Amino acid sequence: MMNAREALAILDRDFLETRCKVLEVAAALDRIDRAPAHHPEHPDPRLGQLRQALEALLIPGPDRAETIQLIFSREYDPAWMDGMKRGAGGEAR
């Protein structure tokens, strides 16, 4: 388990980079909201994923990265290897 001194050292080391990434996300969302093609009545499911991910960041805990990765991941397909047996043009390998 991490003690307060270790947590402070990580914050000291990573604060500026993390702040920059948060600002990048905010700027990207601002660009989406200002874009003329933005149609709130037909939301893109990816925007929903982004909202879910941002909400997950607010829940304290050590597994936020895993939670967010699962938000952006496809559900497991037990037949995923079947698609690997075909070439780029759909022909069997």
Describe the protein in words.
This protein has 93 residues and is mainly α. The protein has 2 domains: 1-38; 42-77, no CATH class. It has 4 helices and no strands. Helix 2 (45-57) runs antiparallel to helix 3 (64-72). The longest helix has 31 residues, at 4-34.
Produce the secondary structure layout.
Blueprint (H helix, E strand, L loop, with lengths): L3 H31 L10 H13 L6 H9 L7 H5 L9
Helix pairs in contact: 2-3
Q: Which structural class best describes the helix and strand composition?
A: mainly alpha
Instruction: Report Rg.
Output: 19 Å
What composes the largest sheet? none
What's the number of domains? 2
